[in-house]
Design a protein that fits this description.
The chain is α+β, with helices and mostly antiparallel strands.
């Protein structure tokens, strides 16, 4: 249940995709991404080669995540005879196209785009990715339809396109994480941690009732671990301390609760674990850069 609850608090967004198109025998070298980069194979077979020079095979409907800062290359199925470095000289509507070879003789077509999948600032789902991660999804028919909807909306944006593409990508990520969770989870330490019933209990407890006066000691008790062992294992898995994770959860929930005009400011503060309205206001302002009152009344 922890993954379900966690994903309910995760915000997923993608930048507009580019189409990377390779003819047979071509390699396309791509620069270091400034954030996690997603590659989805629309057509053909090939390889993705990471900075460690390890080649990962790509099949139709494979989804690959490349870590931030990892220079990499795409290769068509045929032996490499030509190479091209990334540029946008072939870019054009409706989606940017980066072509290595001839588009008329495309052997491999991949949708490429930056992805943001964050639980506040405490947990970027792919922030601690240890290497290129490739997951085959060809047996999951909905994934093809979801990606088709994303590309259609990005090619011809309409009112609500951002919300729709975000919802579609969230669904894709659920399928992706389900598949990763059934295999080797070493690439995603936080996903492996959720499969540890001890850490899972603690995460569930925070997600179910973040307003409870949790402490490191009480969370460690829920996990059935010593305080030091729990703090060390949690921080290693999630990239932040248990209490920082809890604070992030409280601040994200507070931002949503402020949209409910039936809740007083004192009620919102209490729901997220603050007995003092002034303390809550100070913490919210420090975290979000805006006071709770201004967040509730952005125009006034």
């Amino acid at each position: 249940m922890s993954l379900d609850r966690l994903l309910a608090h995760v915000e997923i967004a993608v930048q507009p995709f580019s189409l990377c198109i390779l003819s047979g025998g071509w390699r396309l070298r791509l620069p270091q991404p400034t954030g996690p980069l997603l590659h989805f194979v629309l057509k053909g077979r090939g390889k993705i080669v990471g900075p460690d020079r390890q080649a990962h095979h790509l099949e139709p409907l494979s989804l690959a995540i490349v870590p931030q800062g990892a220079a990499h290359a795409l290769e068509s199925h045929a032996p490499v005879r030509h190479e091209k470095a990334f540029d946008l000289e072939n870019a054009g509507p409706p989606l940017y196209r980066i072509v290595a070879g001839s588009e008329d003789q495309a052997d491999l077509t991949i949708a490429c785009g930056m992805i943001s999948a964050k639980f506040g600032e405490s947990l970027g789902l792919f922030n601690h990715l240890s290497g290129v991660l490739v997951v085959p999804l060809a047996d999951l028919a909905p994934v093809r339809e979801l990606f088709a909807a994303i590309l259609e909306e990005q090619a011809q944006p309409k009112e609500g396109s951002n919300a729709l593409t975000g919802a579609c990508m969230t669904a894709v990520m659920v399928y992706f994480l389900r598949r990763v969770g059934k295999g080797d989870t070493d690439a995603l330490p936080w996903l492996r941690a959720l499969q540890d019933p001890r850490l899972g209990r603690a995460v569930d407890a925070m997600l179910l009732d973040c307003g409870r006066p949790w402490s490191l000691e009480t969370l460690a008790d829920v996990a059935g671990m010593s305080r030091s062992a729990f703090a060390e294992r949690f921080t290693k898995a999630f990239g932040n301390t248990p209490m920082a994770f809890l604070h992030e959860l409280r601040m994200n929930l507070a931002a949503r609760l402020l949209n409910d005009r039936n809740l007083t400011m004192d009620a919102v503060a209490k729901r997220v674990g603050f007995s003092s309205r002034s303390h809550f206001s100070q913490a919210f302002s420090h975290h979000h850069g805006i006071s709770p009152a201004a967040a509730r009344n952005p125009a006034g």
